[in-house]
């Protein structure tokens, strides 16, 4: 439906190519979102404007806009006169995450159809996941310990059908 003269909508089609562009703040938010999801910024950690802005080479205003975007997504929490912190998940948040995962993952499994499926590494992956983790003595653990990464590792992905 074409826009009427004077309503400003008539020449919007010329600006369609601009919709694919993202702002610097959105790109900074993407970097921070990825770092949070990977567990590089632990829950409850205060994010330093000076440290992050300096490391990424962006202005304070750009960084604050990125923080605002991530706060709106509920990944960060802004505390007045204290700063911005990585949000700590509550028990209800974790329960919601698992409810959604169950819906999505069960739908994927149903969508796989009938086998045969390549299940060679499945038993080993289950045994590794059920094995108690040995206490560490200052060395990095080979297994994911972050709640954000423990269940999303590609090595733990569902088997792919061989059909």
Topology diagram in text:
Blueprint (H helix, E strand, L loop, with lengths): L23 H14 L8 E2 L1 H8 L3 H13 L3 E4 L3 E4 L4 H22 L9 H9 L33
Antiparallel strand pairs: 1-3, 2-3
Question: How would you characterize this protein structure?
Answer:
This protein has about 160 residues and is mainly alpha-helical. Helix content is about 40%, strand content about 5%. It has helices spanning about 25-35, 50-55, 60-70, 90-110, 120-130, and strands at about 45, 75-80, 85. The chain has a 3-stranded antiparallel β-sheet with strand order 1-3-2. Strand 2 and strand 3 form a beta hairpin. Helix 1 packs across helix 3. The chain is extended. The model is unreliable at about 140-150 and about 155-163 (pLDDT under 50).
Structure in a nutshell:
This protein is mainly alpha-helical and 163 residues long.
**Could you give the count of β-strands?**
3
Q: Approximately how much helix is present in the residues?
A: 40-55%
State which percent range the strand residues make up. 5-15%
- Which class do the helix and strand fractions yield? mainly alpha
Strand/helix succession: HEHHEEHH
Main sheet attributes: strand count, strand direction, barrel closure: 3 strands, antiparallel
Residue runs with pLDDT of under 50 for 5 or more positions: 140-148, 153-163
Give the strand order, joined by hyphens, for the main sheet: 1-3-2
Q: How large is the radius of gyration?
A: 22 Å
Overall geometry comes to extended
Average pLDDT rating = 80
Specify the number of helices.
5
Q: Give the termini distance in whole angstroms.
A: 46 Å
């Amino acid at each position: 439906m074409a826009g009427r003269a004077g309503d400003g909508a008539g020449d919007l089609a010329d600006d369609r190519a601009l919709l694919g562009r993202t702002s610097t703040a959105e790109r900074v938010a993407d970097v921070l979102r990825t770092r949070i999801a990977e567990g590089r910024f632990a829950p409850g950690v205060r994010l330093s404007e000076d440290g992050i802005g300096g490391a990424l080479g962006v202005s304070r205003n750009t960084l604050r806009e990125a923080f605002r975007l991530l706060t709106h997504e509920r990944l960060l929490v802004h505390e007045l006169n204290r700063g911005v912190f990585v949000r700590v998940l509550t028990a209800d948040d974790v329960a919601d995450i698992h409810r959604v995962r169950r819906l999505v993952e069960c739908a994927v499994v149903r969508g796989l159809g009938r086998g045969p499926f390549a299940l060679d590494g499945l038993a080993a992956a289950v045994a590794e996941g059920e094995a108690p983790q040995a206490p560490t003595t200052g060395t990095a653990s080979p297994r994911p310990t972050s709640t954000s990464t423990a269940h999303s590792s590609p090595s733990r992905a569902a088997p792919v059908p061989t059909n």
